[in-house]
Write a structure and sequence with these properties.
Length: about 450
């Protein structure tokens, strides 16, 4: 018997706009910070870019048909802000909205719930030119954009998510420079983090009364030893990675060792009630304040600085676990740990795992991708979800990252996370063994539903 979930449990898959859509110059889309960043020499492995990506903009109907074949309950995607507002503010581009209407009509016709994320890192370039996320005004521009998307699309969306992984947007974008816009300005990264949180809160106001949540990437974090310096290092990293966002959204506070000075009233906006918290989970960090180790949890693909503002001296150690093709340690119990932690330490809130998955060096052989390692990864993490539910966590769903192989940011197309293999030359889609396995899990859960409800 495979993992069984309570009735109504959502089993879906996720993607994001810049990673899959392509069509960067079509139908009035403006440039985003990623369009600019990928053109800078040495910023993305192989000089790869998302100009065409996996051509989802033109192939969305085929992609939705694949989702329907797999039996997905839900599909989490993101809207490209510069498709809707090519200049980042003011005029709305109806053709941009039309694309997402057509996508969601297709999803709804196949009974797949649309889960819409408003921001998955593709800031309009004009807003970066005006200062980007370190600039407070960007949060207000985001609220305007959110209101416009909500007005046009609210009748089709099942669940809204505001900002995907503000940690990455702030610290990879403005501290380490691994991601667009590629700045290395630690103090501005903290400002960016606060304004991304503020953007979340303002967007929640803008799209009420629809069902909405924030989206954070949480890590399980363990001190290397019980030496107080290791414990302090772990606390520091937990503050930057997890509590900077969890405490803000769910309690209206910031960790006291992180120097952010919110304007009066900001924390009330940021912590306004939400309906669900979307949690992305990939790995565990083992951190030390005493031993030498790597300056970051995993190797960056390109020349970049430290994302750990104020904790640059903390070392990340090898935990000795098997790793994925990203070099990320596989630790499914870490997922159970972060879910139970949120349930224990914060006011009650329904949770959803909104991203979880793994890159492996897949081989397409004889018309098949036998990705047993990915199946094992997903299976273990679904079991961890089940265990968290058994411990009382109000977990409502799980989204695999990703539906299809795609543009993995600074890593380019070299890292494949998909359940569905994509030939980047021909754009041919082929469900991997993991996709067929996942479809089976979904079918078994559906069969079991009536007896549970
Ligand atoms: C997450 C991102 C997603 C993808 C996965 C592997 O941090 O949200 O776009 O890159 O990691």
């Amino acid at each position: 018997m495979r993992t069984q979930f309570p009735a109504g449990f959502v089993l879906g898959a996720a993607t994001s706009a810049y990673q899959i859509e392509g069509a960067v110059d079509e139908d009035g889309r403006g440039p985003s910070i990623w369009d600019t960043f990928v053109r800078r020499p040495g910023r993305v492995v192989g000089g790869h870019h998302g100009d065409v990506a996996i051509d989802h903009y033109h192939r969305f109907a085929e992609d939705v048909a694949i989702m329907a074949d797999l039996g997905l309950t839900a599909y989490r995607f993101s809207v490209s802000w510069p498709r809707i507002q090519p200049d980042g503010s003011g005029n709305i581009n109806p053709k941009g909205l039309d694309f997402y209407k057509r996508l969601m009509d297709e999803l709804l016709s196949k009974d797949i719930q649309p889960w819409l994320t408003l921001y998955h890192w593709d800031l309009p370039q004009t807003l970066e030119d005006r200062g980007g996320w370190p600039e407070r005004d960007t949060a207000y521009r985001f609220a305007d954009y959110a209101a416009a998307v909500h007005e046009a699309l609210h009748d089709r969306v099942h669940t809204w998510a505001t900002v995907n992984e503000p940690w990455c947007a702030a610290f990879l974008g403005y501290a380490s420079g691994e991601h667009a816009p590629g700045r290395r300005e630690p103090e501005n990264a903290l400002k960016a983090a606060h304004h991304l949180n503020l953007a979340h809160g303002l967007a929640v106001q803008a799209i009420r009364p629809s069902r909405v949540g924030g989206c954070v990437n949480l890590y399980a974090i363990t001190p290397a030893t019980d030496d107080p310096r290791d414990v302090a290092a772990a606390k520091k990293i937990d503050g930057l990675q997890n509590r900077l966002f969890l405490d803000a959204l769910l309690k209206g506070t910031y960790p006291d060792d992180i120097p952010i000075n919110p304007v009066s009233g900001d924390m009330e906006v940021i912590s306004a009630p939400i309906d669900v918290l979307l949690v992305n989970y990939y790995s565990r960090y083992i951190v030390s304040g005493t031993e030498p180790g790597r300056a970051s949890a995993s190797a960056a693909p390109t020349d970049s600085g430290s994302p750990w503002v104020g904790a640059e001296d903390v070392a990340f150690l090898d935990g000795g676990r098997p790793v994925t093709a990203m070099g990320w340690e596989i630790d499914a119990d870490g997922l159970r740990e972060v879910l139970t932690r949120v349930a224990r330490d914060y006011p009650p809130i329904p949770l959803v795992v909104s991203e979880n998955g793994a890159a492996f060096d897949d081989v397409l052989d004889d018309g098949r991708v036998r990705d047993a390692d990915r199946i094992a990864y997903l299976d273990a993490h679904l079991e961890a979800c089940r265990a968290a539910i058994d411990e009382g966590v109000p977990l409502e769903g799980y989204f695999a990252w990703s539906l299809m192989d795609n543009f993995e940011w600074a890593w380019g197309y070299g890292k494949r996370f998909g359940l569905v293999h994509v030939d980047f030359e021909t754009q041919r889609r082929l469900p991997k063994d993991s996709a067929l396995w996942y479809a089976d899990i979904i079918r078994q859960n559906e069969r079991h539903e009536p007896t549970d409800s």
